[in-house]
Specification:
CATH topology: Four Helix Bundle (Hemerythrin (Met), subunit A)
CATH architecture: Up-down Bundle
Structural class: mainly alpha
Number of strands: 0
Organism: Tepidiforma thermophila (strain KCTC 52669 / CGMCC 1.13589 / G233)
Distance between the termini: 61 Å
Radius of gyration: 21 Å
Largest sheet: none
GO molecular function: cytochrome-c oxidase activity
Shape: elongated
Protein name: Cytochrome c oxidase subunit 3
Pfam families: COX3
CATH superfamily: Cytochrome c oxidase, subunit III, four-helix bundle
Order of helices and strands: HHHHHHH
Membrane topology: Multi-pass membrane protein
Strand content: under 5%
């Protein structure tokens, strides 16, 4: 009977909630795909990248420079990748019925996500160009800004998971929301790796 119950559970596949969440992630992939396409089209249309030649004399006089810092975003990338590992450890913990592990690793993931956001805000403050400084500035801040919003949303999502974990709402048999949260956070991580490669390495 027990074996039959397990087999039946596997045959049921994804729940409607998880299927809907996966479709949501698919729409997010298309959203960022559109942003990346806009960036590469703008880059292809420019005779050099970043397009310093588009800066006006007034912008040059004001000290506008289309340059980005590498090492700070690189360290932030390492932290975000680490947070992807820790949120997966949280999933593994609750799969084994380890609630304390779920709480601990979710908290660590939240801290890493917040540190990433703080580093991104600090990086913005050190840049010598704004969102209106050529198409480069527009695409740079649009891509990183929307990603930052998604990171902030992921931190809120993990905060809800942490609160529910502290209330004892998850078990080894019932933790679908935790897995959904990890899927979202892995997605955010992968998008940032693509962004970091595109904006900080390829140019």
């Amino acid at each position: 009977m027990a074996a039959h119950a397990v087999a039946t559970q596997h045959k049921q596949g994804l729940s409607n909630g998880m299927l809907g969440f996966i479709l949501f992630l698919a729409s997010e992939v298309m959203f960022f795909g559109g942003l990346f396409a806009a960036y590469f089209i703008a880059r292809a249309d420019a005779r050099e990248w970043p397009p310093e030649y588009l800066l006006t004399p007034e912008q040059v006089a004001a000290g506008v420079k289309l340059e980005v810092e590498f090492w700070l975003p690189f360290i932030a990338t390492i932290l975000l990748v680490t947070s992807s590992v820790t949120i997966q450890l949280a999933v593994f913990s609750i799969q084994r019925g380890n609630r304390s592990g779920l709480i601990r690793w979710t908290f660590v993931s939240i801290v890493l996500g917040l540190v990433f956001l703080i580093m991104q805000m600090y990086d913005y403050s050190q840049l010598h160009f704004g969102v209106g400084d050529t198409i480069y500035g527009t695409t740079f801040y649009t891509l990183t800004g929307f990603h930052g919003l998604h990171v902030a949303g992921g931190v809120v999502f993990m905060g809800i998971i942490l609160a529910r974990s502290l209330a004892g709402q998850f078990t080894a048999a019932n933790h679908e929301a935790v897995e959904a949260c990890s899927f979202y956070w892995h997605f955010v991580d992968v998008v940032w790796i693509a962004l970091f490669t595109t904006l900080y390495i390829i140019p």
